[in-house]
Amino acid sequence: MEATARCTREVSSSIGLSPGNYFSKDKHEDSDKIVDRLIKNTASEAVEYSLSLQPTGSVEWSNSLVLELSSGFVLDAERYEYDWNLSGRINSISLRNGGGRNLVSVFACPDLTNVGAQVLHNAPSHSGLLFAVNEHEAGYELGAGGLRLQDLSRDNFIISHLERRGSSCVHLVRSVQATVGFFDLHFSDLDFTNAIESLSLLSRICTENQMHSDPDEDVHERRSVVESHSTSVDFLKCQIFLFTDELQPFAKARLDDLSVDIVTSDALKDERKKLEVIARSDTIFFYDLSPEGQIFDTVIEPESVASAKDSAFEIRMTLSNDTTQIPSELLIVFTNIRLVFLRRFLTELFQYFLNPQYGMGHFVSVHSDNLATPNENSISPHPFSYQVYLLESSIICPKTSKSPDLIALKSPKVILSNSYETESFSLPNFDIDLDDTVHKDDITDSEDKGPFDFTFDLRSDSVLYDDLDYGAVKHFDPSSVLRINVSAEQLRLYTGLSSEHSEQGTEDRDLFYLINYLKVQDISDGLSVFTTSGVLPEDLFSKKQRLLRLCNRKWEEVTIEPVKELEVFVDFLPSNLRILIKDRITFDEDGTHDCAPVSVTLRMSQFYTLLSMWYGNMQEIPVLFPYSIQTIVNAIESPPCPSNFPEYGTPSFIERMAVGIDKKMELIVSIAKLSWRCSFDHPEYFFKSLGCAYMLDQMNDAVSLEAEEFLLKVDFDIEQVMRVGCTSGSLLVNDFRKNSTHFEDCLNIKQKKDQIGTALDMNWGLYRDMKDFSANIGSPFQLTVFMTPDRNCLINVGFDEPDSCTSDLAFFWILLEYFSAYFLCSEFGNPYFEAERKRIEYYKGCNKGTNDATTKQQPCLNLDVRLWLIQPCIAIPTDPLDKDCNKLMLKTQLGGISYRYRTVDYGLSSQTIFTKNMDILFLSDHLPDNNFRKLRNSDSIVQILTTGVNMCIIHDMHIDTNHMNVSLSSLTLDDFHEELEGIEPSSGQAEPIILPEPTVCNARIMQPKKWNRQSKCDIVLCPENLKAAAALLSNFVGPYPEENNLENLSEADEKELSFSVSAKLCDFRLVICEPVLGMHLPIANIYISQLHCSVSDFKAEHNYIGGDLDFQACADVHLWIDYYKSGPTRSWEPLLEPYKCTALYDKSSKRGQGITINSECPFHVNVSGAFLETMDFATGALFTSIFKALDRKEQMTTPLPKKQKNSVPFQGYKTMKLVTEEKCFSSGKEIPIEHEKVLTLFSNERVAYSLINLSGHRIRFHQHNRSKEGLSVGYVDHLEITALSFPATRSVFRNLEVVEVSSDAFEDERSPANKQFDSSHYIDVQVPGMYWCHSICVDKTGKKFVSLYPRSDTVRVSTRIEYILQHAFHYFRRTDNKDFAYFNRKN
Questions:
Q1: Residue of higher predicted confidence among 200 and 182
Q2: FRET pair for 1060, CA 20 to 30 Å: which of 159, 184, 365, 1030?
């Protein structure tokens, strides 16, 4: 070992050693000899002391510390009259234990050119450690003046000196400056614990020697002297290793150009702060060296495009001098770094640093000085307060620790901080006036500052430190709520997936072998995820294709626009964890500012990767520093269902769900505007085909969701009850299947104008019956889910005034599979299925030959889904690719539709439908704005199919017995106001008919009577529309796959199905009519007062015990019939008087079949001439309409002929323009006149008004057209029929104005005021050679002659002379309603 010491002559007299021991009494002795003797004696004593400390045994050697200076050292000591300085240089130094393991090493770096300390500017660049320590008075440079050192020990002199200066104290500055080349630290708990013990022993020996050497030395307390200490250390390269006690490497940190400043001063002490540490590093790397971290070993690294002017790592830490008053604070800033987030590694770090059983946590727990247990009356100290900034950085989240599927986040600013609040956050709502909120720009500094400035004020639960009043300082409240806050701005989300799917295990193995030759590239849309970073060795040439496949992965951005703001609150309550995710950053207690919508587009693979990151990465547990066995067991074991848990559906069950006890976790999501585009991958991407694959083109089609004021809450309690609540101020579902539909807005729920805000009701649906259609659901959309430990799941969904225009529910089935397939099938990547498979295999291996209950099938989840549609308006187009096609309307006023799906175990499923005031309409014309809700039943383009349907339909399916029960019953208004008991329906099931015992005769014949009340439901039997409605409604719940796409039925599906049907209907009317241009011609009304029927089919022998009955149908009916009499009276006449009977039909495999009708009243039918005349038309027209509907292959789209389908309604249907002329009138105005050949009708086609020419000549006619400025003249040949543009109404004088009303068969209602119809019912006709015949009325029936006036003067004079010739010049006009009443008249 080489050691060099040098002491200058000028400071020899002030070394601080006792002169009596080493100096001669002779004052004339040479000073050089004195210094030489001093050095010799000092070295001799040091050697003797070192030899006395040398270990003598192997145990002592293993516990000893060895400090090695392989290249020696240089030390300079200088003492002036006013101050002193000590500097030195050490080329290399290492500290190791007796076992040979290095603890700390410092050695020179070849690139050490910049030295931090100015006093060491002449030091050689190859030095490992350069240091300088000095002390001087503040305000004076080193060696330039100040108070003399020998006077600092004399208080009287200091006081007089301060009085002359006029100051209160002497301020001394002690500074340490050092520059380190390469610093290497290897930390393990056991080695550093032994090192601390050895250093403590050395410290005690030195202290004892000092006390024995100077027993009588006076220690002067310098009360008037204030010292400030500053330490500055610059590391060219700093490397820190973390090891386990078994020397297993765990983590490694590397920092380049690291500078550390440690300051303590009087100003800090005044603020009750002990010291302040500031550190900066230009480059930072952090590695995961655990066996499980071999894939993603680089946890933190600089971005490849990092700016050179920014420090990658900066830290400021302030230690409090009194933690009972002020907390210690920490600020960390990362700039332009890439962070790989692995929950396993993060948990291992927490275990290593915080768990008192491992690593640093154990080391601190053993050697900390603050382990004294506080008394009950002592003041609780403030916890540590911290903030972590990520500026211009990115975060990569792998799906698992071994998966190449990556998720990346980029943001210019991410902040992680903690605070302590007096109470947890409240449930957010959207009724805040945003105009009064505080904006971010109003509370931040407007100056342009660098990326790291200390304007980032550390948040604390104490008061501000400015003008600190010690009496006003608040003590820490132990009952405060710890809050972790994470906020991000301009957040972008990316995924790095393969374009083709492969087995997860194969990709994991490929990545394990090839990761050393791959590098993750910069995160940008369209760039490759991986790039090759080395030459592939020969033994891995077989994996070259797999390497290229990994390099073909592309980064894809899933955020359409950056998420402007995102904030997460995590509150740790004593027994509850509460998490809030919102898209608004709170800048103070009361103020928030508006934000942009959260818009994402996610393919199914991308969405499932996000889910897998939660169920994979976020669920991984530490391996190197594991949890305790009891902790793991408590986390995975589900407590059994309490024995006193209430039975499902009972009032006590509802009360238990509404209250909620001892919550364990709460998750709240609040998003002001959400847009989610759901798309799909290649059909062969997953190993399982989608059930909805035939409904869409997976490569091009998509369905999107848009919601405003979206709130979601999920909570769990100690009894494993999960509650989910979701609400939205508005909801829009867009169907972007271009080849399937042109109606994109398939579901639209708008926010009401009178709605103040959106609030979440976690108990919605619990106290609501299926027959409750009141509009008090709180928000346009409500959803609640309740899952109980007895495996029951209740789902309540409510829509208020939903508007829908779609031909089927394909969008619903697509969304349902999009969000549920991941949880149902293992082929979509859910790690739960693989974990469950391994669990079962493990239990089977542990219990060979035994029937372990853990390997049996899990109990079934009993599902109960309840859906309410409050006042819906649903339009079903006949042609989804034609926006102008006809539509079937489902509409309610002050009512709605409810649906319930219920499963019990594996053997029973039940479906229930309730309707209230539901109307089924047929829309025969296009609405430009598609505002179907404004339509009225009296509009001319509306055809009524049903009105006021109050119905209950129940369908039960017994899977074990393959038997189906169907119940159909009508409801009264009293049924909708029954009191609710639990959530089970109180009524609705139709009981089967029980036939009375047969008797020989009845003592009295009971004559049934008509009701004197209005029918509750009208059903219009229009053959053509009924066929279209049946086809549309049957396809609406689909679509269904084509026959060539159907798979072979299973054996269970091929079994014969037995069924039972019960129906109980009352107070409804069947209206038989024929469609005529958007209106109806009534034929007959069938009033059914009561209809009770039962149908049973017993095809499966095991379902029927005894007997040989196969099929039975029974009906009990009470009805009467009225017909609509044509002619001048146009009135209703009775056809069948009230009649009541019972009919029974039996079919037996042994006895054959038969029918029995039992009637206890007369069968009275009224037949008259008017009835026969009406039936003559009715049978012909009705049968023509029936055959027309049956023969037509395509669905009916319009009651007009096909050649008139594309023409404008009520405009005369003109298609061929003959000529246009300008006619000048007496006023001088020229008006264009168009001569057109109109389209003709067939004899069996029906319109409201038509014109037939039987004159033998071509005639022309004129009808006023308000949509044109000019005049139009139509031409009709002999025997041709053309339609007139008059609506199917008649003019009446009512309330002092002329209005148009509809048929007498329905209520008189006015036509819409905004429709410009020509309702005068007058036309002008001209015969060749004659003048125009004006104002011929087509609205009044009868026969009439219209005079003709020849245009020739000679003929006109002749007609005046000859009387007989005068009567010959008349036009016979007949308006007939024989066939079509007043709806269809031929002129």
A1: 182
A2: 1030
CB 7 within 8 A of CB 39: yes
Q: Which two tokens stand for residue 635?
A: 């986390």
Using 50, 70 and 90 to split pLDDT, how confident is the model at 456? very low
Smallest CA-to-CA distance from 580 within 708, 696, 714, 701 is with 714
Please state, as a whole number, how many other Cβ atoms lie within 10 Å of the Cβ of residue 70: 13
Per-residue pLDDT of 550-562, as tens digits, reads 888 899 999 999 9
Which contiguous run of DSSP H or E holds residue 1282? strand 1281-1283
Mean pLDDT: which of 142-146, 152-156, 325-329 is highest?
325-329
| Greater model confidence, 762 or 1310 | 762
User: Helix, strand, or coil here: 836?
Assistant: helix
Q: Per-residue pLDDT averaged across 990-1007, rounded?
A: 64
On the CB side of 580, CA atoms within 13 Å amount to 20
Question: Position 1335: which residue type?
Answer: S
Q: What one-character-per-residue DSSP string does 1029-1055 give?
A: HHHHHHHHT-PPPPGGGPPPPPHHHHS
Length of the chain: 1387
Cβ neighbour number for residue 797 with a 10 Å cutoff: 18
Contact by Cβ (8 Å): 943, 1052: no
Q: Summarize the confidence of residues 1265-1290 as an average pLDDT.
A: 77
Helices and strands (H and E) in the chain: how many:
20, 58
How sure is the predictor about 439, in pLDDT bands with cuts at 50, 70 and 90?
very low
Q: What is the 3-state secondary structure of 555-578? A: EEECECCCEEEEEEEEEECCCCEE
Where does residue 771 rank: exposed (0-12), middle (13-18), buried (19+ CB within 10 A)?
A: buried
The CA R_g of the chain, rounded to the nearest whole Å, is 47
**Residue 220: its pLDDT value, please?**
41
| 336/300 Cα distance (integer angstroms) | 10
φ/ψ of 1003, rounded to 5, equals -70, -30
Give the pLDDT score at 1217: 60
Q: Is 656 helix (H, G, I), strand (E, B) or coil?
A: helix
The β-bridge relationship of strands 73-79 and 6-7 is parallel
> Strand, coil or helix: what is 1176?
helix
Q: Is 60 exceeded by the pLDDT of residue 1190?
A: no
Rounded to whole angstroms, what are the CA distances from 438 to 430, 444, 594, 805? 16, 11, 10, 42
The Cα–Cα gap between 582 and 671 comes to 6
Residue with tokens 């025969």: 924
Say if residues 920 and 889 touch (Cβ distance below 8 Å): yes
Q: Are 932 and 873 in contact (CB under 8 A)?
A: yes
pTM: predicted TM-score of the whole model, two decimal places: 0.76
Half-sphere exposure of 1198 (CA within 13 A, CB side): 17
> Structure tokens of 759?
């609030």
Give the Cα separation of 918 and 899 in Å (integer). Answer: 14
Q: What are phi and psi of 812, to 5 degrees?
A: -70, -45
Tokens encoding 1226: 């007496």
CB half-sphere exposure, 1072, CA atoms < 13 A: 18
Kindly report the three-state secondary structure assignment for every residue of 164-217: HHCCCCEEEEEEEEEEEEEEEEEECHHHHHHHHHHHHHHHHHHHHHHHHHCCCC
Residues 193 and 361: their CA atoms lie apart, in Å, by: 12
The CB density around residue 490, as the number of other CB atoms within 10 Å, is 16
Residue 339 to residue 520: CA distance in whole angstroms: 12
- Rounded CA-CA distance 1312/934 in Å is 10
Helix (H) or strand (E) holding 251: strand 249-264
Q: At what angle do helices 504-514 and 544-551 cross, to 10 degrees?
A: 100
Residue 496 has pLDDT above 60, yes or no: yes
